[in-house]
Amino acid sequence: MSKAYREIEYTVTEADGTITAGEVMRERLMLSSREVSRCKLFEDGVMCKGVPVRIITELDPGDVLTVRLYEDIENSSVIVPSDEPVNIVYEDEDLILLNKRGDQVVHPSYAHYMDSLSNALAGYYAKTGQEHVMRVIGRLDRETSGLIIFAKNRHSASVLSQKNENMSRRKEYLALCTGIFNEKEGTVDAPIERIPGQRMIREVRSDGKRAVTHYKIEKEFRDFSLVRLQLDTGRTHQIRVHMAYLGHPLLGDNLYGKDIEDNKGMTRAALHACHLEFEQPITGERLSFEAELPEDMKTAISS
């Protein structure tokens, strides 16, 4: 089994001057106060030259501080591993980026105890000898396919979560929407709120929370369109609600497009998270990824 911690090193520079271990952790490695406190719980959580040091210990230029971020495996919820394969787009020590299939929940629930994406990822971790707490960054609805991030350690989860709003604005979706749009690109700025008495269904309402969706037509077909979308906000079902509001509900959407006569074989809302940009949480490297349309949406286009 692999080590259940992430080790990070920092070499003190001349520009740093004399600096304490705690200052390096907080100001250079950008660890939160909670993470710093947790490192102190372990004998080898904070070390210099292979020797444990206190966070008030002063370091000199050339000193290398080693910090170990231990996973809290014992107190994490147990997710039963499944044998379902995962579609890995990218993986490193700090995160794993998956291409989720459509009509799959991300987290286990009473109705989806063994068939969630987290179950499949737990199975992959078990097979590869990795121990990680499940920490998903952002979210995808059950029906939506595409790119989704799981952080592998506490620090990467914290950094990615702090940047999630900007990351979401750089995320792009592709949808198959009914009909031909009069305006080939535009912005929907219309508040969304849950329908009273309904647990899941939303609608555009003046008393709702602000929701902004940008769209651009990629390709038109006889009676439906391939649309690229970006979000400034992340309301539940935002794209599905806004496209229905425009009179162009998504193919296969049984909540907001019940009157669609021909769903082109789609049995779930035709929405796919196709593009994602973000910075690697430890190195700061700019990463960019694409996920091609899934087979059900390709089939709908070719039908």
How would you explain this protein's 3D organization?
It is a single chain. The protein has 7 helices and 18 strands. It has helices spanning 21-28, 33-39, 117-127, 154-162, 164-169, 238-245, 295-302; strands at 5-11, 19-20, 46-48, 51-52, 58-59, 64-70, 88-91, 95-100, 135-137, 145-151, 172-178, 185-189, 192-194, 202-204, 212-220, 224-231, 271-279, 286-290. The strands form 4 sheets. Strands 7, 8, 9, 10, 11, 12, 15, 16, 17 and 18 form a 10-stranded mixed sheet that branches. It has a 4-stranded antiparallel sheet with strand order 1-6-3-4, with helices on one face. A hairpin with a 3-residue loop joins strand 7 and strand 8.
Instruction: Give the H and E element order.
Output: EEHHEEEEEEHEEHHEEEEEEHEEH
DSSP helical segment count: 7
- Report the strand count: 18
Biggest β-sheet description:
10 strands, mixed
The share of residues in helices is 10-25%
Distance between the termini: 48 Å
Instruction: Sum up the overall morphology in one term.
Output: elongated
Task: Quote the beta fraction.
Answer: 25-35%
Rg, nearest Å: 23 Å
CATH topology tier name of the largest domain: Pseudouridine synthase
In the CATH hierarchy, what is the architecture of the largest domain at level 2? 2-Layer Sandwich
Unreliable parts = none
Mean pLDDT value: 92
Could you state the CATH homologous superfamily of the largest domain?
Answer: Pseudouridine synthase
